[in-house]
Design a protein that fits this description.
It is built from five helices and seven strands. It is α+β, with helices and mostly antiparallel strands and 143 residues long. Strand 1 and strand 2 form a beta hairpin.
Length: 143
């Protein structure tokens, strides 16, 4: 089974299709890839590191019952979002896990420090339109 077979199986079992751009990013690195995410918070323009988890890591166990992609589901109990309809895919530099809401493929954040959740972008495409590539494993540039 190649690394994308697990992702395809997940899509089939959950009746979802991840964005093509997300799959292309997953196919472009093994260990790490970093983008700058440019966001306006309370009227202040900020840049945060946006880190994607490699496809191999996404399906690794993080405890006895959860894989890494289930991290948010293992942490939250929310009336705003169904924890079982989430797919953790990366994080931001300020202690934030990022995940897809599988119901509409919107992008949400989960703050580790206060356990709060909120939608940050309506789609993966919107997230990437505010992001710029920095580096990945195999690049010669130092980060």
């Amino acid at each position: 089974m190649n690394k994308f077979d697990l992702l395809a199986l997940f899509e089939a079992e959950n009746g979802v299709a991840f964005p093509k751009a997300y799959k292309e990013i997953l196919g472009s690195f093994e260990s790490y890839i970093i983008y700058d995410y440019h966001v306006n918070e309370f009227g202040v323009q900020k840049t945060k590191d946006l880190n994607f988890y490699g496809i191999s890591r996404l399906f690794e166990d993080i405890d006895k019952t959860h894989k890494l992609y289930q991290f948010v589901a293992s942490e939250i109990s929310s009336s705003v979002i169904d924890p079982d309809k989430t797919f953790t895919f990366g994080g931001l530099s300020d202690g934030v896990e990022l995940f897809f809401d599988l119901r509409d493929m919107s992008i949400w954040r989960y703050y580790l420090d206060d356990s709060s959740t909120a939608q940050i972008e309506p789609s993966f495409e919107a997230l990437m339109s505010k992001s710029s590539f920095v580096t990945r494993d195999g690049d010669l540039a130092l980060y």
